[in-house]
Automatic annotation (TrEMBL):
Gene, per the UniProt record: pepN
Family: Belongs to the peptidase M1 family.
Domain (Peptidase M1 membrane alanine aminopeptidase): residue spans on this chain: 225-442
Protein name: Aminopeptidase N
Origin species: Collimonas fungivorans (strain Ter331)
InterPro entries in alphabetical order: Aminopeptidase_N-like_N (IPR045357), Aminopeptidase_N-like_N_sf (IPR042097), PepN_Ig-like_sf (IPR038438), Peptidase_M1 (IPR001930), Peptidase_M1_dom (IPR014782), Peptidase_M1_pepN (IPR012779), Peptidase_M1_pepN_C (IPR024601), Peptidase_M1_pepN_C_sf (IPR037144)
Cofactor: Zn(2+)
Taxonomic lineage: Bacteria, Pseudomonadati, Pseudomonadota, Betaproteobacteria, Burkholderiales
Enzyme Commission code: 3.4.11.2
Length: 894
């Protein structure tokens, strides 16, 4: 397959002014008549029209009223070319597609009998021949025609301008989008749907119509999405001065969807997972995710739609920025400082767990990549989450007001345009009057920088020096890295644990020294920052609030970490200190387990672990203090008490040994569970949330803390814990508690566990999203081996065709159950290869995601590596591989 290069970008030869489309919707064969008015682009020297089209039947093609015959145009490799076209062109194109046969869920497809589209990134070309690239923006008018009984609702972008009946029981609806847009934002929905709607008055006084469309029977699950939409609208007005530009804004939920949701202009299409919620079916995490995704798609209306991307290499321009905006939105919705910190910790956990490994693996790419084979493979945690960190750094450097000024300038300059990441940086820089040319490396260089910290206190001079050095390992295609511009937020704690006022030597005389957090700007490979008037030897708190997406190497003693965990005023670093302390124990334990197994002779594992667990007493004490500190939010305590995941630990070892990691982590969990048993039980009972369910931050924090306590208690696997979990399961009035209890039971030897699993299935058989949870919790159970997963894949409710279902079982196992996936006999990898090959034929995009579960195969012991390589090679040799899968597997094996 061909590689697309960023440097090969050329402006489009023709610009499109208007697009008029007529759809005769039919699941077997939908006829699409498209009329495009185009004109030569003065910025291009070319007279050639290039249209993209895939899996289409071309029925008719007319240029300026005259039918074109084969020979007057070239049709080859997904491109339709018309050489030497006149300066002004009206193209009329008729195409046929078969939505019911479309299992890729790109372009026009059928889900549960209704029609939906997904056009980003390159799905519009599966609907008609078109210059399907984001820098071609046009105004669309869309006429939908369909059987009225089967498809009573007909939706597209913008405003409904006409509707009525046709002969033969058909009807029509005509939609007009007043804003020009790239083709990837086109959408239509047709089917049997119902909506919750309400009028809402914007700050300006203008009234808009808001709708949430779902299948019949789901109207009791739309309130939270509607509330989230209203909150998003209000937030964007207040925080960024951005108003909804349409009179009507629709959200539609669909059960078959490749991603989370899609920001089509005025007609957002959502995976049901990010719309439907009520206390019976949705967890606290689901509620939070719905708020975040509704916000994310809504915020795209400005960051993505009004200002869009010049080409797909600029994807992070809209995605990184919009993730940053949704993160800030979620944080502001909680409102408290500690709530903001909890959100920040959650986001950083995702970054470390998923993006850092990506940045260290074969698919590593920069935030603005230089090449791709299949653009759908680049909707990654690097583009999204690391991209958001890059945007966040502007705010860290310029402050909230400075950031807002940059945003204002960005819209002032680029509204209605398709632009580059560089344009965003330029707006930020110009609005704040600073030279940030080195900052560009965050966009061009892949890899996670490592920052090493050394410190020196001079008690005579009262100075404290921090020497920061940065390095970044090579990534594919980038052997040498230049220094990044890294904002490092620092605080210094005195011996009582209080923040010291900070004064840098570079400040000179006269500046008031009341600030207790300073942002140091590390721009060189090595730099020393000298603080003056430092009264006593401090304990440094570095990279506060995770001020840059880097790995921080700093040598703390256990005592210093415990001190920071107890006192740091920066909640992020407080949490971080606990995680460092726990990681330290876990890595010692893991090494001991490995040594014991390599020693070859039979050693009692328990003895090995007990001997190695020397600092777990200190950890238990530190955790106990947090657990019992009622001044801390429950949500924060839950995060602090959660040990780093097996995946995160794996990344911190030289050679990954999933079994040893699992053994040690489980051991430490058991040890902490025993040591803190009384406190955990007390916390369990103190954090009940009686009364009506509410997903607010305080209540969900309490449930999280209570349920982490339960998970520690169940580690003992005794009757008392079984009874507690069973009782919680039976009495739960919400899915958060019910699911947590079922997970606890499933990971225990409780006698009632099979019955509970069965009852859960029966009770929720009609709720697809809950059945997904049922598959996922079994797929991630410590006891679930490959055979169990294969058996589940034969369950009548399982299908690879539905992405949510495929993810719930297959992905949950392959990336969420390392100890069983990496079974020493390689059976997990064989299962993986079978599924990638099967999915490739159904849905290449989803298949390519699954293909990535072996990204890190070179980090495992040789015996496992060999088995992984064999599985990768088997997939590579499979017939008819999509370019999606080929790219991922090819890079893994390279
Ligand atoms: N922009 C969409 C992503 C669509 C990806 C298709 N392969 C979702 C989002 O980021 O909001
Ligand atoms: Zn997005």
């Amino acid at each position: 397959p061909t590689t697309v290069l960023r440097k090969d970008y050329t402006v489009p030869a023709f610009l499109v002014d208007t697009v008029d489309m007529g759809f005769d919707l039919d699941p077997a064969a939908t006829r699409i008549a498209t009329r495009i008015t185009m004109r030569r682009n003065p910025a291009s020297g070319s007279k050639e029209i290039v249209l993209f089209g895939e899996e289409l039947e071309l029925v008719q093609l007319r240029l300026n009223g005259k039918q074109l015959k084969p020979g007057q145009y070239q049709l080859e490799a997904g491109k339709l070319r018309i050489a030497s076209a006149p300066a002004k062109v009206v193209l009329e194109i008729e195409t046929l597609t078969s939505p019911e046969k479309n299992t890729s869920l790109m372009g026009l497809y059928v889900s549960n009998g209704n029609f939906f589209t997904q056009c980003e990134a390159e799905g519009f070309r599966k609907i008609t021949y078109f210059p399907d690239r984001p820098d071609v923006m046009a105004k669309y008018t869309v006429m939908l025609r369909a059987d009225k009984k089967k498809y009573p609702v007909l939706l597209s972008n913008g405003n409904l301008i006409e509707e009525g009946d046709l002969a033969d029981g058909r009807h029509y609806a005509k939609w007009e989008d007043p804003f020009k847009k790239p083709s990837y934002l086109f959408a239509l929905v047709a089917g049997n749907l119902v909506c919750q709607e309400q009028k809402y008055t914007l700050k300006s006084g203008r009234e808009v119509l808001l709708q949430v469309w779902v299948e019949d029977g789901n109207l009791d699950k739309t309130q939270h999405a509607m509330d989230s939409l209203i909150n998003s609208i209000r937030w964007d007005e207040e925080r960024f001065g951005l108003e909804l530009d349409l009179d009507r804004f629709m959200i539609v939920a669909v059960g078959d969807f490749n991603m989370g949701a899609m920001e089509n202009k005025g007609l957002n299409i959502f995976n049901t997972k990010y719309v439907l919620a009520n206390p019976r079916i949705a967890t606290d995490v689901d509620y939070a995710n719905i708020e975040a995704v509704v916000g994310h798609e809504y915020f795209h209306n400005w960051t993505g739609n009004r200002v869009t991307c010049r080409d797909w290499f600029q994807l992070s321009l809209k995605e990184g920025l919009t993730v940053f905006r949704d993160q800030e939105f979620s944080a502001d919705m909680v409102g408290t400082d500690s709530g903001r910190a909890v959100k920040r910790i959650d986001d950083v956990r995702v970054l470390r767990q998923a993006q850092f490994p990506e940045d260290a693996g074969p698919m590593a790419h920069s935030v603005r990549p230089d090449s791709y084979v299949e653009i759908n493979n680049f909707y990654t945690v690097t583009i999204y989450e690391k991209g958001a960190e890059v945007v966040r750094m502007y705010q860290t450097l310029f402050g909230r007001d400075g950031f807002r000024k940059g945003m204002d300038l960005y819209f002032e300059r680029h509204d209605g345009q398709a632009v580059e990441c560089d344009d965003f940086r330029a707006a930020m820089v110009d609005a704040n009057g600073r030279d940030l040319s080195q900052f560009e490396r965050w966009y061009s260089q892949a890899g996670t920088p490592r920052v090493r910290v050394q410190s020196k206190y001079d008690s005579a001079k009262k100075t404290y020096e921090l020497t920061l050095t940065q390095t970044c390992a090579p990534t594919p295609g980038q052997a040498k890295k230049l220094p990044f511009h890294i904002p490092v937020a620092v605080g210094l704690l005195d011996s009582k644990g209080k923040d010291m006022p900070l004064r840098l030597q570079a400040d000179g005389k006269g500046k008031a020294n009341t600030e207790t957090t300073r942002v140091l700007e590390l721009t060189k490979a090595e730099q020393t920052f000298r603080f003056v008037e430092v009264a006593e030897q401090p304990v440094p708190s570095i990279l506060r609030n995770f001020s840059a997406p880097v790995v921080l190497d700093v040598e703390y003693s256990d005592a210093e970490l415990a001190f920071l965990l107890a006192h740091d005023s920066d909640p992020f670093n407080r949490w971080e200190a606990g995680q460092r302390l726990a990681t330290r124990s876990l890595l010692v334990l893991t090494a001991a387990v490995q040594d014991a197994s390599q020693a070859g002779h039979v050693v009692a594992l328990q003895d090995v672990l007990n001997n190695a667990a020397s600092n777990s007493g200190a950890l238990g004490e530190a955790f106990g203090l947090i657990l019992n500190d009622a001044a801390l939010d429950a949500a924060f305590r839950e995060l602090a008490l959660t040990l780093p995941s097996e995946t995160l630990l794996a990344e911190q070892t030289e050679v990954i040994d999933p079994q040893a990691i699992h053994t040690s982590r489980q051991y430490l969990r058991g040890k902490l569970g025993q040591a803190l048993k009384d406190d955990l039980l007390a916390a369990y009972h103190a954090n009940q949330t009686p009364g009506a369910y509410s997903p607010d931050a305080e209540a969900s924090g309490k449930r999280a803390l209570k349920n982490v306590a339960l998970s520690y208690l169940i580690q003992a696997d005794d009757e008392a814990a079984h009874a507690l979990a069973q009782q919680q399961y039976d009495n739960a009035n919400n899915m958060t508690d019910r699911l947590a209890a079922l997970v606890a039971l499933t990971n225990s030897s409780a006698p009632g566990k099979a019955a509970a699993l069965e009852k859960f299935y029966e009770d929720f058989a009609q709720e697809a999203l809950v059945i997904d949870k049922w598959f996922a919790l079994q797929a991630t159970a410590y006891t679930a081996d490959v055979a169990a997963i294969r058996a589940l894949s034969e369950h009548p409710a399982f299908t690879l065709k539905n992405p949510n279902r495929a993810r719930s079982l297959i992905f949950s196992f392959c990336s969420g159950n390392p100890v069983n996936f990496h079974a020493v006999d390689g059976s997990g990898y064989e299962f993986w290869a079978d599924q990638v090959i099967a999915l490739n034929g159904v849905n290449p995009q989803v298949a390519a995601r699954l293909a990535r579960s072996l990204d890190r195969w070179r980090k495992y012991a040789p015996a496992l590596q060999e088995k992984m390589r064999a599985a990768l090679q088997r997939v590579a040799a499979a017939p008819d591989l999509s370019k999606d899968v080929l790219e991922v597997i090819g890079k893994a094996l390279a």
